Amino acid sequence: MSTILPVAERGESILTLTAAEVAKTELNSPWLKELAEAMHATMLARNGVGIAAPQVYVSKRVIIVASRPNPRYPDAPEMDVLVMVNLEILEKSELTVWGEEGCLSVPDERGQVARAESIKLRYCTLEGTAVETTLSGFPARIVQHEVDHLDGVLFIDRI
Ligand code: K1U
Ligand code: ZN
After folding, report:
1. How many percent of the chain have pLDDT more than 90?
2. Nearest CA to ligand 1 atom 16
3. Is residue 2 very low, low, confident or very high in pLDDT (cuts 50, 70, 90)?
4. What is the CA radius of gyration of the chain?
5. Range of the structural domain that residue 116 is part of
6. With 90 as the cut, is the pLDDT of residue 1 above it?
7. Domain-embedded: residue 72
């Protein structure tokens, strides 16, 4: 059984920091795999579609993205869970779209946020393999929301 971690809430300083890169020596390590498992379990326990390490008090550049159809985004793709380490957004579409967001760190608040409709990104897997891909729609929105967490920004700062 995986550990479910406490989630930091708005007002806590961990959510305002710029998270550090994961070191090369930490890739493919038991520590990083345990962190990702615990983040995944915590996200599922909170019914989320994404989570960033700073939300569980670890200021490192690790996120999980797990798009699935939901009442606000019924057409969202059901994706395999993606764990992204040291991700970089390489390009953002000029086209932005408004959409509703929530946040595990801002309970009971929702708001409309404008985000790039599609993004090109590069990240490392837990094992350290570099991946370049393009995402659009709801998965692209989740990634942008999670990257904001790595840079100390909450969706309510964008409203
Ligand atoms: O990072 C987080 O706080 C998780 C957050 C991810 C997210 C949701 C919606 C848009 C962008 C990023 C959540 O999972 S909030 C809960 C949720 O499942 C949800 C909320 C609003 C719309 C759709 C889903
Ligand atoms: Zn959030």
Report:
1. 95
2. 48
3. confident
4. 15
5. 13-158
6. no
7. yes
Report the pLDDT value the prediction gives residue 36, as an integer from 0 to 100. Answer: 98
CA angle 22, 26, 32 (to 5 degrees): 85
Name the closest ligand to CA 69: 1
> Which CATH number is 128's domain given?
3.90.45.10
Averaged over 96-117, what is the pLDDT?
Answer: 97
Q: Is residue 6 part of a domain?
A: no
Domain count, the chain: 1
pTM here? 0.98
Output the CA 39–ligand 1 centroid distance in Å: 14
Measured CA to CA, the distance from residue 58 to residue 140 in angstroms comes to 23
Nearest 5°: the CA angle 25, 27, 29 is 90
Q: CA-CA distance, 90 to 115, in Å (whole number)?
A: 15
Tokens (6 digits) for 24: 């090369």
DSSP H stretches of helix in the chain: 30-45, 137-150
37 is annotated as an active-site residue: no
